[in-house]
Amino acid sequence: MIFGVTRRGERAERHVLSAGRLSAAVLTYGAIVQSLEVDGTNVVLGCETLADYETRSRYFGAVVGRYGNRVAGGRFTLDGREHTLPLNNGPNSLHGGTDGFDRRVWEVADLSPASITLRLVSPDGDQGYPGTLTAAVTYTLAGDALRVDYHAVTDAPTVVNLTNHSYFNLAGKGDVLGHVLTMPAHRYLPVDADLIPTGELAPVAGTDFDFTGPEVIGARRGGAYDHCYVLDGEGPIRVAEPESGRVMEVTTTEPGVQLYTGAMLDPEATPYGPYAGFCLETQHYPDSPNRPEFPSTVLRPGEEFTSTTTYAFPA
After folding, report:
1. Where along the chain is beta-D-galactose bound (predicted)?
2. What does the alpha-carbon distance between residue 30 and residue 10 come to, in Å, rounded to a whole number?
């Protein structure tokens, strides 16, 4: 169905997927997961109108790119050539720049009752990134899970870091400070004042960042987190909401995950207030294009970028 028309005059569609206990509404605008219902309860934050997504969203449910997370100084060097990106997060470029993938209308490449594939072509020089990138994301409902598959190819060397920016609230209301998080990560990336990694992969043991055992999100730091964790590759990330008993388990092929607890959500500027939802953005590390010691995010012609993340809701 038609969801609305963008300020650029593009038509955005809304498609509803359903399978078993789950249903999801997906928009072609931003490849957004507008809603994800588990046994009838919506567990993600979203906007009701396209106008709100264009003016009041903080990446709610969107695929962010070409490079998700921050690039320091809005610049990086690849094969000896410096590339300059828009600054939209203080001195940094965030989530692909001022006109990232979250603000584009994607094309429906495939559709079935429980799955949708969306495709986007990002031209050479788009937001300062080199190479024409053809990206695709597939959302599939299967059993008790939403599976997200990413794919991208390029015609020139570039950098890619795609992720979904859904904010989850397993109660479907209130804040998420009482949610209980277990993170299979013994290291995290400390950041400077501009939230750029220092380069250290620091142990979480003995710090407020230790979620290797079940911990209430709001128990430390006032619940404020916007940090990347280095996943151990053992077991899922697990979040439990005590009152509803609802549980979400996240598995991914990515080396890291950004935990963001929505501390900066502003009820005057968005439909939600602080801590209304938490994000688990599975991805490569922030600022990797400027950090050769981090896992590479470079994609070259003839290569394929692939990534899979699954959000499961066991009964």
Report:
1. 69-70, 165-167, 226
2. 12
Q: Does residue 52 have a known ligand-binding role?
A: no
CA nearest neighbour of 32 among 142, 141, 167: 167
Q: What is the DSSP letter of 207?
A: S
Does 155 count as an annotated binding residue?
Answer: no
Q: Are strands 226-230 and 187-188 parallel, antiparallel or unpaired?
A: antiparallel
Q: Are strands 163-164 and 256-260 parallel, antiparallel or unpaired?
A: unpaired
Dist. CA 209–CA 192, nearest whole Å: 15
In residues, how long is the chain? 315
* Domain spans in the chain, listed from the N-terminal domain onward: 2-312
Q: How far apart are CA 206 and CA 198, in angstroms?
A: 19
Q: Any known ligand binding at 226?
A: yes
Q: What is the pLDDT along the chain (315 residues), one digit of tens a residue?
A: 999 999 999 999 999 999 999 999 999 999 999 999 999 999 999 999 999 999 999 999 999 999 999 999 999 999 999 999 999 999 999 999 999 999 999 999 999 999 999 999 999 999 999 999 999 999 999 989 999 999 999 999 999 999 999 999 999 999 999 999 999 999 999 999 999 999 999 999 999 999 999 999 999 999 999 999 999 988 899 999 999 999 999 999 999 999 999 999 999 999 999 999 999 999 999 999 999 999 999 999 999 999 999 999 998
Cβ-Cβ contacts under 8 Å for 25 (sequence gap 6 or more):
14, 15, 16, 17, 33, 34, 35, 46
Show which residues are catalytic: 165, 281
* Cα 143 from Cα 154, distance rounded (Å): 33
The CATH fold assigned to 2-312 is Beta-galactosidase; Chain A, domain 5 (2.70.98)
Q: Distance of CA 67 to CAs 54, 106, 258, 276, Å?
A: 20, 17, 13, 25
Alpha-carbon distance of 197 to 288, in angstroms, equals: 9
